[in-house]
Structures are given as structure tokens and as C-alpha cells.
């Protein structure tokens, strides 16, 4: 009994215990551990996706990548316009003048397989661009070309090593040729100038040959037409036995005028005989016969000249002169066109004897003394930006997907 009383008395002297809070639910727990885990993953992913590739790029660019030398050159296509020296033909002799697309053709040729094959025939491009080797152990697999590369791969590598900069406003083309030795870069640039000049000369020769062939064909056609016109004129003269119907017509018109004068005189003479009181019948008859004869002769001449209706028929001088004038016009036109064709042919031959378009290199291929390529700092900066952007996009995308799934 005393023990219970003591326990009862002692109990109030103990400090009161505060009530314990209930443990937070799972939804109310702070995300400290998952957030730390995510930060760790982000850091690890940054190291794996950005830092390590950058270290690899630095090692490759400064340890394994071979030095490259650049040779620069610049040229354009020049043309000479021929001054029209045959203005009396009405400008028909103006033949020369290069097309404005010559520089565009050259720009396309500089990146074509034809030029690669042509330069490769003079220089061993595969050996030049595979000089450092392509193996990972000792070579340069990024900037070097395999020695057994196909022509298609060689063309692709050509476009990496030979950069073409074209200014369409001025028509200037600049090139930068890369190789692993300065001698090789300069040799390739020299071959580019030589082959490009040959291509432009071939275009010029082809244009000149086409112009000469066309002019020669035109001369042959006009000559055939002139021969036909002259043949028709000769046949007309032989058929009608007349050399110049114009002169013949003038003669016959003069004869007709003289006959008419004689007719007037004969009529006056007859009138005078009839006016005499003691006229002789024989004289009167002779005068009347003379007048009738002259009139018949006048009618015959008029019929032959075509002045008395269709009696003259095809032999009428009016028809003959008209046909002769047609033949004369055709002959004159054939002669004029033939002279013009001969003038154009002479002009085309004169143009062919001189060079109307040519490649003008205002910057000859240079020889490098320092290896400026590959541009390691710029390449490293580009790689870093690309990796950082790619990593950022991937992380943001992962967070977006997670937030959408949690919601």
C-alpha cells in the first residue's frame, strides 16, 4: 500500500512527455536523395558526353592530326569582243563575244569528276592525300584518304581539300588547295590552272569551229542559190535568143516611134495628093498602100511589145521583160547574200586565228611555309559547342519527359 502511494506521489514529479508526431507520408518526404542522384547523373553525363569527347578531340587534333599546307590561287575568264569591221553588211559580221555563263561553267568544272580524273592522271592524288596513313594506330583517319579509294570517294575528298570561293558579282574565283606538304599543294594548284585553262580553250575552240562550220555551210547554200539564179537567167536568154530584154525593148520602142513618125508623114503626103485638083491615081494608090503597110507594121510591133492585147502571147516583150526582171532580182539577191556569207566566213576565220576567251590568273599558285591547317582551335571550338548543345538538349528533353510522366 505504501509502495503504491509512493509511486503515485512520485509520478507527478516526472516531466511530461510531448506527444510524438506521426512520420510523414511518402508523398510528403523531401526529394533530397533523388535530387542528389539526378545531379550526379547530370554531372556524369556531362563528363561522358562533353568533357571526354573534348579531351579525345584535343588529343587527336594536337597529337594525331597531320599538318596541312595551303596553296591559294585566283583567276577569272576574260573575253575579247571583236570590233565589227564590216558595218556595210548591216551588222551581220558581228560574231564574237563569249557567253556570260563561261565562269559558271568553270565553277562547275572545278568540282567535277572530270577535273579530278584529269589532275589525277598527272598527279597521284591518292598517294598525295594518303601520305600520313589512315590507321588509328599511326595514321590520320579523319584528314587522310585511303590509298585504294574509289573515284567517287576521291571526288568527295577533293571537295574537302579544294575549296572554291566564287563571287558571282565580279566573276572571280578563288581556290584553296590543302595537302600534307607545300610542294604537293602547289603542284595540285598548278594542275588546276592548267586543266582549267585547257577546258576554257576547248570551249573557245568548239565555239570557233561551230561558227566556221555554220559560216561555211551558209556560203555553200548561198552559192548553190546563186548558181541556180544564173542558170535560170542563161536558160531564159537561150530560149528567147535575147541577151538583154531591156535593151531590146528600148530598140523596139524606138522602132515603133519611127514607124509612127513615118505614118504621120505618109498621111500628110496623101492629104496633099488628095488636095491637088489634078492628082494622079497611081500616086494616090501608092500613098494609101504605104500608109496601110506602115499601119500593119505598127500593129505587128505593138502586138509583139504586148501593147495590143493578148495577141503577142508569151512572146510579148512586156511579159518577157517582166520575167527577165524577176530573174534579175533573184540573181542580184543571191549575189548579195553570197557576198555577205563570204564576208561572215572571212570574219569567222579571222576570229578563229585569235583567242577570244582565256583563263586569266591574277593570283598564281602560292607556296606555303607554315602549316596553318587543320585549324585546331576553331575545330575544337566547334566540337565543344556542338557537344554542349547536344548534351543540353538531351538533358532538357529528359527533364521534360520526367516532369510529364510525374504529372
Automatic annotation (TrEMBL):
Region spans: Disordered: 1-33
A GO cellular component entry from the record: plasma membrane
Coiled coil spans: 256-304
Organism superkingdom: Bacteria
Residue ranges crossing the lipid bilayer per the database entry: 42-62, 378-401
Biased composition (Polar residues): 1-10
Alphabetical keyword list: Coiled coil, Membrane, Transmembrane, Transmembrane helix
Any GO molecular function: protein tyrosine kinase activity
PANTHER family registered for this protein in UniProt: FERRIC ENTEROBACTIN TRANSPORT PROTEIN FEPE, TYROSINE-PROTEIN KINASE
Protein name: Chain length determinant protein
Source species: Pseudooceanicola marinus
